[in-house]
Model the fold of this input.
Amino acid sequence: MPSAVRDQSLHRFPIVAAVYAARLQSICGLGAISIAAVLFLALALHISLFSAPAQGMSAPDAAEQTAPALVRAANGVLPLGGISVTLAVSVSNVVNLGAVTAELGYNNTVLAPVHCRLNRAAFSVGLCNLTYDSNGDGIADAVRFNLATLSGVSASANAPLMLVEVSWIATGTAAVGMTTPLSTTVSNFANSDGAASPFTTQDSQIAFEAAPQPTATPLPTNSPIPTPLTTPETTPTAGSPTPPTPGGAAAIFLPVVASP
Done:
Protein backbone atom coordinates (compact mmCIF):
# COMPACT_ATOMS: atom_id res chain seq x y z
CA MET A 1 0.00 0.00 0.00
CA PRO A 2 1.49 3.43 -0.95
CA SER A 3 2.45 5.68 1.98
CA ALA A 4 -0.10 8.37 1.06
CA VAL A 5 -2.91 5.86 1.01
CA ARG A 6 -1.61 4.30 4.23
CA ASP A 7 -1.61 7.68 6.01
CA GLN A 8 -5.13 8.38 4.80
CA SER A 9 -6.23 4.96 6.07
CA LEU A 10 -4.70 5.64 9.48
CA HIS A 11 -6.69 8.87 9.80
CA ARG A 12 -9.97 7.11 9.07
CA PHE A 13 -9.08 3.97 11.03
CA PRO A 14 -11.16 4.71 14.19
CA ILE A 15 -14.26 5.49 12.11
CA VAL A 16 -13.83 2.42 9.93
CA ALA A 17 -13.34 0.18 12.98
CA ALA A 18 -16.50 1.49 14.61
CA VAL A 19 -18.49 1.11 11.41
CA TYR A 20 -17.39 -2.49 10.92
CA ALA A 21 -18.10 -3.32 14.58
CA ALA A 22 -21.62 -1.90 14.36
CA ARG A 23 -22.22 -3.62 11.02
CA LEU A 24 -21.11 -7.00 12.36
CA GLN A 25 -23.43 -6.55 15.34
CA SER A 26 -26.48 -5.82 13.17
CA ILE A 27 -26.02 -8.29 10.34
CA CYS A 28 -24.85 -11.46 12.05
CA GLY A 29 -27.66 -11.82 14.55
CA LEU A 30 -25.26 -12.63 17.39
CA GLY A 31 -26.51 -10.09 19.97
CA ALA A 32 -24.55 -7.22 21.50
CA ILE A 33 -20.80 -7.19 20.92
CA SER A 34 -18.71 -6.64 24.04
CA ILE A 35 -16.09 -3.90 24.36
CA ALA A 36 -13.37 -6.54 24.27
CA ALA A 37 -14.71 -7.89 20.97
CA VAL A 38 -14.81 -4.39 19.47
CA LEU A 39 -11.20 -3.80 20.52
CA PHE A 40 -10.21 -7.13 18.98
CA LEU A 41 -11.87 -6.22 15.69
CA ALA A 42 -10.21 -2.81 15.73
CA LEU A 43 -6.81 -4.39 16.37
CA ALA A 44 -7.29 -6.84 13.50
CA LEU A 45 -8.19 -4.00 11.14
CA HIS A 46 -5.20 -1.99 12.33
CA ILE A 47 -2.82 -4.91 11.67
CA SER A 48 -4.25 -5.35 8.19
CA LEU A 49 -3.10 -1.83 7.31
CA PHE A 50 0.54 -2.87 7.72
CA SER A 51 0.34 -6.44 6.45
CA ALA A 52 1.10 -7.73 2.97
CA PRO A 53 -1.74 -7.80 0.44
CA ALA A 54 -4.17 -10.64 1.01
CA GLN A 55 -4.43 -13.67 -1.23
CA GLY A 56 -5.93 -13.07 -4.63
CA MET A 57 -4.97 -11.00 -7.64
CA SER A 58 -3.51 -7.61 -6.70
CA ALA A 59 -5.73 -4.72 -7.69
CA PRO A 60 -4.55 -1.21 -8.64
CA ASP A 61 -5.14 1.52 -6.06
CA ALA A 62 -7.77 3.22 -8.21
CA ALA A 63 -9.34 0.04 -9.61
CA GLU A 64 -13.12 -0.06 -9.68
CA GLN A 65 -15.57 -2.90 -10.18
CA THR A 66 -17.19 -2.55 -13.59
CA ALA A 67 -18.67 -5.92 -14.56
CA PRO A 68 -20.69 -7.70 -11.82
CA ALA A 69 -18.82 -10.13 -9.61
CA LEU A 70 -20.24 -13.64 -9.21
CA VAL A 71 -20.94 -15.12 -5.76
CA ARG A 72 -21.87 -18.80 -5.90
CA ALA A 73 -22.02 -21.95 -3.79
CA ALA A 74 -20.65 -25.22 -5.13
CA ASN A 75 -22.86 -28.17 -6.04
CA GLY A 76 -22.26 -31.45 -4.23
CA VAL A 77 -23.26 -35.04 -3.54
CA LEU A 78 -23.99 -35.95 0.08
CA PRO A 79 -24.13 -39.56 1.35
CA LEU A 80 -26.69 -40.54 3.96
CA GLY A 81 -25.70 -42.02 7.30
CA GLY A 82 -24.15 -38.98 9.01
CA ILE A 83 -21.25 -38.53 6.58
CA SER A 84 -20.32 -34.85 6.07
CA VAL A 85 -19.38 -33.12 2.82
CA THR A 86 -17.68 -29.71 2.64
CA LEU A 87 -18.69 -27.24 -0.10
CA ALA A 88 -17.22 -23.80 -0.79
CA VAL A 89 -18.87 -20.44 -1.39
CA SER A 90 -16.65 -18.42 -3.72
CA VAL A 91 -16.45 -15.11 -5.56
CA SER A 92 -14.99 -14.49 -9.01
CA ASN A 93 -14.53 -11.56 -11.39
CA VAL A 94 -14.12 -9.18 -8.46
CA VAL A 95 -11.84 -6.16 -8.02
CA ASN A 96 -10.76 -4.66 -4.69
CA LEU A 97 -13.36 -6.43 -2.53
CA GLY A 98 -13.41 -5.04 1.00
CA ALA A 99 -16.52 -6.53 2.66
CA VAL A 100 -19.18 -9.10 1.91
CA THR A 101 -22.18 -10.36 3.86
CA ALA A 102 -24.15 -13.29 2.51
CA GLU A 103 -26.63 -16.01 3.48
CA LEU A 104 -26.73 -19.59 2.31
CA GLY A 105 -30.31 -20.80 2.68
CA TYR A 106 -31.13 -24.52 2.96
CA ASN A 107 -34.02 -26.92 3.65
CA ASN A 108 -33.69 -27.73 7.34
CA THR A 109 -35.86 -30.86 7.05
CA VAL A 110 -33.20 -32.71 5.02
CA LEU A 111 -29.96 -30.78 5.59
CA ALA A 112 -27.92 -29.29 8.44
CA PRO A 113 -24.62 -27.35 8.56
CA VAL A 114 -22.05 -28.67 11.04
CA HIS A 115 -18.94 -26.55 10.42
CA CYS A 116 -17.93 -23.26 8.80
CA ARG A 117 -14.39 -22.23 7.87
CA LEU A 118 -13.69 -18.63 6.87
CA ASN A 119 -10.91 -17.60 4.49
CA ARG A 120 -8.72 -15.99 7.15
CA ALA A 121 -5.81 -15.71 4.72
CA ALA A 122 -7.66 -13.24 2.50
CA PHE A 123 -9.91 -11.48 5.05
CA SER A 124 -8.65 -10.17 8.39
CA VAL A 125 -12.11 -10.02 10.01
CA GLY A 126 -14.98 -12.44 9.73
CA LEU A 127 -17.90 -14.12 11.47
CA CYS A 128 -20.00 -17.15 10.58
CA ASN A 129 -23.41 -18.02 12.08
CA LEU A 130 -24.46 -21.64 11.49
CA THR A 131 -27.81 -21.23 13.27
CA TYR A 132 -29.19 -18.15 11.51
CA ASP A 133 -33.00 -17.91 11.33
CA SER A 134 -33.82 -16.03 8.14
CA ASN A 135 -37.63 -16.06 8.47
CA GLY A 136 -37.98 -15.60 12.23
CA ASP A 137 -39.82 -18.86 12.94
CA GLY A 138 -37.33 -19.92 15.59
CA ILE A 139 -35.71 -22.63 13.46
CA ALA A 140 -32.30 -22.25 11.84
CA ASP A 141 -32.53 -22.30 8.05
CA ALA A 142 -29.46 -20.42 6.77
CA VAL A 143 -25.73 -19.95 7.21
CA ARG A 144 -24.86 -16.27 7.46
CA PHE A 145 -21.29 -15.01 7.16
CA ASN A 146 -19.44 -11.71 7.05
CA LEU A 147 -15.91 -11.03 5.81
CA ALA A 148 -13.96 -7.76 5.73
CA THR A 149 -10.51 -6.43 4.91
CA LEU A 150 -9.08 -2.96 4.32
CA SER A 151 -6.46 -4.27 1.90
CA GLY A 152 -8.95 -5.27 -0.81
CA VAL A 153 -8.83 -8.62 -2.60
CA SER A 154 -9.42 -9.44 -6.25
CA ALA A 155 -10.06 -12.57 -8.30
CA SER A 156 -10.41 -13.17 -12.00
CA ALA A 157 -13.37 -14.85 -13.66
CA ASN A 158 -11.35 -18.05 -14.15
CA ALA A 159 -9.84 -18.20 -10.66
CA PRO A 160 -12.57 -17.98 -7.99
CA LEU A 161 -11.61 -16.91 -4.48
CA MET A 162 -13.01 -19.03 -1.65
CA LEU A 163 -15.01 -17.01 0.89
CA VAL A 164 -16.16 -19.76 3.26
CA GLU A 165 -16.39 -23.54 3.34
CA VAL A 166 -19.46 -25.12 4.95
CA SER A 167 -19.72 -28.79 5.96
CA TRP A 168 -23.15 -30.44 5.61
CA ILE A 169 -24.85 -33.65 6.80
CA ALA A 170 -28.13 -35.22 5.72
CA THR A 171 -30.95 -35.23 8.30
CA GLY A 172 -34.65 -35.93 8.69
CA THR A 173 -36.42 -37.08 5.57
CA ALA A 174 -33.42 -37.01 3.20
CA ALA A 175 -33.58 -39.96 0.80
CA VAL A 176 -31.46 -41.44 -1.96
CA GLY A 177 -32.10 -39.70 -5.29
CA MET A 178 -33.47 -36.51 -3.69
CA THR A 179 -31.94 -33.08 -4.38
CA THR A 180 -32.20 -29.95 -2.24
CA PRO A 181 -31.33 -26.34 -3.23
CA LEU A 182 -28.81 -23.98 -1.66
CA SER A 183 -29.87 -20.36 -2.21
CA THR A 184 -27.25 -17.61 -2.14
CA THR A 185 -28.32 -14.14 -0.95
CA VAL A 186 -25.87 -11.23 -0.67
CA SER A 187 -26.88 -8.27 1.50
CA ASN A 188 -23.61 -6.33 1.45
CA PHE A 189 -20.89 -6.24 -1.21
CA ALA A 190 -18.45 -3.32 -1.04
CA ASN A 191 -14.93 -2.38 -2.03
CA SER A 192 -12.18 -1.50 0.44
CA ASP A 193 -13.42 2.12 0.59
CA GLY A 194 -16.92 1.02 1.61
CA ALA A 195 -18.56 1.81 -1.73
CA ALA A 196 -21.08 -0.70 -3.08
CA SER A 197 -19.84 -2.93 -5.92
CA PRO A 198 -21.99 -4.70 -8.51
CA PHE A 199 -22.51 -8.44 -8.08
CA THR A 200 -24.71 -11.34 -9.10
CA THR A 201 -25.39 -14.67 -7.39
CA GLN A 202 -25.78 -18.27 -8.50
CA ASP A 203 -27.69 -20.92 -6.53
CA SER A 204 -26.60 -24.54 -6.26
CA GLN A 205 -27.94 -27.89 -5.08
CA ILE A 206 -27.01 -30.99 -3.11
CA ALA A 207 -27.95 -34.51 -4.25
CA PHE A 208 -28.31 -37.34 -1.73
CA GLU A 209 -26.85 -40.79 -2.29
CA ALA A 210 -26.68 -44.03 -0.32
CA ALA A 211 -24.05 -44.40 2.36
CA PRO A 212 -21.06 -46.43 1.19
CA GLN A 213 -21.26 -50.08 2.18
CA PRO A 214 -18.30 -51.53 4.08
CA THR A 215 -16.25 -54.02 2.11
CA ALA A 216 -16.55 -57.54 3.54
CA THR A 217 -13.25 -59.05 4.59
CA PRO A 218 -12.95 -62.67 3.36
CA LEU A 219 -12.38 -65.27 6.06
CA PRO A 220 -8.99 -67.01 5.91
CA THR A 221 -9.08 -70.49 4.36
CA ASN A 222 -7.48 -73.18 6.52
CA SER A 223 -5.09 -75.53 4.69
CA PRO A 224 -6.07 -79.20 5.05
CA ILE A 225 -3.91 -81.19 7.46
CA PRO A 226 -2.68 -84.41 5.82
CA THR A 227 -3.76 -87.64 7.58
CA PRO A 228 -0.79 -89.91 8.33
CA LEU A 229 -0.95 -93.31 6.62
CA THR A 230 -0.97 -96.31 8.99
CA THR A 231 0.29 -99.80 8.14
CA PRO A 232 -2.39 -102.36 8.99
CA GLU A 233 -1.27 -105.03 11.47
CA THR A 234 -1.53 -108.69 10.34
CA THR A 235 -3.55 -110.80 12.75
CA PRO A 236 -2.53 -114.48 12.70
CA THR A 237 -5.28 -116.93 11.89
CA ALA A 238 -5.99 -119.66 14.44
CA GLY A 239 -4.52 -123.04 13.47
CA SER A 240 -1.98 -121.60 11.11
CA PRO A 241 1.67 -122.33 11.96
CA THR A 242 3.80 -119.54 13.13
CA PRO A 243 6.71 -119.09 10.82
CA PRO A 244 10.09 -119.55 12.44
CA THR A 245 12.03 -116.54 13.42
CA PRO A 246 14.87 -115.99 11.01
CA GLY A 247 18.20 -116.95 12.62
CA GLY A 248 16.52 -118.65 15.61
CA ALA A 249 16.52 -122.27 16.70
CA ALA A 250 13.89 -124.52 15.14
CA ALA A 251 11.56 -126.33 17.49
CA ILE A 252 11.57 -130.19 17.19
CA PHE A 253 8.57 -132.22 18.33
CA LEU A 254 9.19 -136.00 19.07
CA PRO A 255 6.43 -138.55 19.52
CA VAL A 256 5.95 -140.02 23.00
CA VAL A 257 6.67 -143.80 23.07
CA ALA A 258 5.22 -145.86 25.85
CA SER A 259 7.26 -148.80 27.29
CA PRO A 260 5.69 -152.31 27.11
About this structure: The domain at 3-209 is CATH 2.60.40.680 (Immunoglobulin-like). The first helix runs from residue 3 to 11. Residues 1-16, 32-41, 43-62 have pLDDT under 50 and may be disordered. The chain has one domain: 3-209.
